[in-house]
Amino acid sequence: MASGDEHALGALYDRWATTVHTLAYYLLGQADDAEDTVEETFWQAWREAGRYDASRGAVSTWLSTIARSRALDRQRARRRRHEEPLESSASTSAEDSSARADSPVLAADPHREAEHAERARDIAAALAKLPAEQREVIELSYFGGLSQSEIAARTSLPLGTVKTRARLALEKLRAPLSLHREGSQ
Amino acid sequence: MSEPAGHDAVRELLALDALDALSTSERRDLDVHLTTCDECRRELAHMRDGLASIAESLPARAMAPERATAMRARLVSHAIEDRTRVTPIRAPSRASSTRWLAAAAFLIAAGAIAYGVGQRGAVAQLASRIAALRDSASTMQRRLADQQSVLNALTGPGVRVIDASASSARQPYARMFWDQPTNHWTFVAYNLPAAAPGHTYQLWLVTRDQKKVSAGTFEPQPNGSAMVRATYALAPDSLAAIAVTNEPTGGSPQPTTTPLLVGAAAKTD
Question: Does the residue B269 lie in any domain?
């Protein structure tokens, strides 16, 4: 793609659009915003393909990072406009996503579905094993897009404590998460 | 590698960087360190990959197919335009030493720019039209290939058909087309009620040794119809039945409810 091959963009989209859309929808809880985020993500990937560095992470990591950044920009803009509480944008979709579904017809790959279900189960288990205070920091940071200072203010904890909890949580998550990543590349 | 103390101190920042939660000064320190420390670069890549896998592990939520296809076509079309964008024509930069020569150069340059702008506009228009035509042709080809694929999956010589029905009042029914030579599965259903909030339908392939293989989750259209397409290799005589169950959104590893639709597969000779 870095050499300007639009077919590579199409292939990248085919492989990762659902993953990117899933993350965007989870962060934003709103179908139109999520789809706009998907389009922005792949366009940014096309324009910045030359800057992708495989040693800094997998392609899916690069796309997820772009998507999360774009989605959090929208989430923050929405909060600025409406003073919307964090919970209403960051944590709604898992519970009631089907109520706002677009009734998509899925072209399923049973192998990938099975792998996906297994990953989801194990990651949820890994997250569930974290002490509640560490899980809260990860959720506020990854899904809520809050900075460590914002988390400190929100939880009334010293900044150092927030940083320590984030680091400990990620170190605990790293092993099971990386295991799945290696298996899924 | 940098000094051991610096390495240890900076290493503390890796998790925070993966979370994009570093201050400007911390990020600067880390960036400097990463230019010389392979170990920390690898560790950071692992942490980023690990964190990003949370995204892959959320319950999958696909876009509506027609919207996803339209977005793909838009992106590819824009990419073609972007690739073929005309390089702006620049005025000559070499200065002359005399006024008349400067004036002549100016006139020549101005003429060249005017000509170039005109040419550039024409070329850009052509590029845009070509991109639009390519996009249109590409969309048509994709639609045609898709339709051909559906047609092959329904009418091929190796296609087996498995009907599934229910006993409820509204009588949903479904039919599975299994194109055995290509391992393509096409499932169509009608009269399905909308899935309950927080739930979705899940299609299963039940093998003769009672293994239940998920063929995907789906939600019916407002008119109750649905189509699921999948590719999965299964030995010709190993399918015992197909079934559809109601599962929590995102699907389940194994069925958790009584099937709404069941269809037994006849044994082949």
Answer: no
